[in-house]
Design brief:
The protein has one domain: Metallo-dependent phosphatases (Purple Acid Phosphatase, chain A, domain 2). With 124 residues, it is of the alpha/beta class. The longest helix is centred in the first third of the chain and has 10 residues.
Length: 124
């Protein structure tokens, strides 16, 4: 199974569409700040970021195969708080955005993935 993770796309609907067309994934996750309504974000599952004004949840637990993923934008919790919330929900992975700086860390039982801004990732 394959997951595509993006964050902080800030109204870049065309880029999101290109990502969907060019990938074949089982899940598309958006860690917030799409600044788009859900109908324009499909097939992405999204949480609400600090720049979103649509009715997305602030956090989600996504079941991927036999692994639970904690999805949050990252603007309301510290990394430690997100890890704690993930552990409370039996999640093994935390995905967040907000800082526009890519990061991959592994804690004792939780892996954190911070997706950089979609624009920065595509310019690499």
């Amino acid at each position: 199974m394959k997951i595509v993770v993006v964050s902080d796309s800030h109204r870049q609907q065309e880029l999101l569409e290109e990502i969907v067309i060019s990938t074949k994934a089982d899940y598309y996750l958006h860690a917030g700040d799409s600044c788009l309504p859900a109908v324009l974000l499909e097939p992405f599952i999204s949480v609400r970021g600090n720049c979103d004004f649509y009715s997305y949840p602030l956090e989600l637990v996504v079941n991927y195969s036999d692994v639970k993923i904690f999805l949050h934008h990252g603007h309301l919790y510290s990394i430690r708080q997100m890890v704690k919330k993930a552990q409370q929900n039996d999640c093994k992975i935390v995905i967040y955005g907000h800082t526009h700086i890519p990061n991959l860390e592994q804690e004792v039982v939780v892996t954190e993935v911070m997706q950089s801004s979609i624009l920065k990732a595509l310019k690499r």
